[in-house]
Amino acid sequence: MLTISCVVIVVFSKTDIVNATTTLNPAIIIPFVGTTTDALVGGVICQYSGGVNARLAIPIIVSSYMICGLGFFVAILIWAAYFVKLMNSGLPPPQLTPSLIMLVGPAGQTAAALQVLGTAAKTYFGAYHKGTFLQTQAGEMLATLGVMLGLFIIGIGLLFAIFGVYIILETAFKRQHKYTLIWWSTIFPMATVNTSFIEFGNEMDSPTFRTLATIFFLLLLIDYILNWIFTIRDIWLGKLLKGPRSERPPAGRMKGQ
User: CA distances (Å), 31 to each of 72, 101, 104, 106, 184, in order?
Assistant: First the structure.
């Protein structure tokens, strides 16, 4: 995923943004959601895996912070380019409006990663005890900064979430929606926000964030079930794979041919 992200950065840096923003798709941000996810996984491995000592954990924590920075700060560039696209070309077609939720992913995953990595740093930095940075005080500072920066960054994620949900609801109110597989892209990005809420609830012992995490989980579960229902329905009707059943020739006629 890190290699893919670097390739996207090179291609993106050589692209004429003024002309390319008319066709820019939110899906371009996916590699950097994956990069920040790698950072989160690094923190989870250090924090919850058995048999991990400071010597094993420190390289994982340091490299996870680095790739988290790569993913999040390149995501900022893509957000800026996409908003240029919105100002120049307007909103995507109605059938593609669910893809706007993809923009939430990097913020939610970064907020969760910073908290988990901060907790891991607090656990292992003191045990490693080398240099001026890998010390107990630095680990405690990173744990505190992880929560504070996570709150800042999740604010960006909620901005994109509110924006995307508003556009989707507005399009639905105008009866312009048609179910496509792009609706599946609404699940994982919003799940990153839920992950960060769970971490906020743990770090601050907050009933509010735990309640928000529960509400988000239930909404995501409903979204997941509805996507399966509509996907199975449209596969059965032939709308997703081979066209509507009414447009296909009868089986007997096909055998005769």
Answer: 11, 15, 13, 9, 17
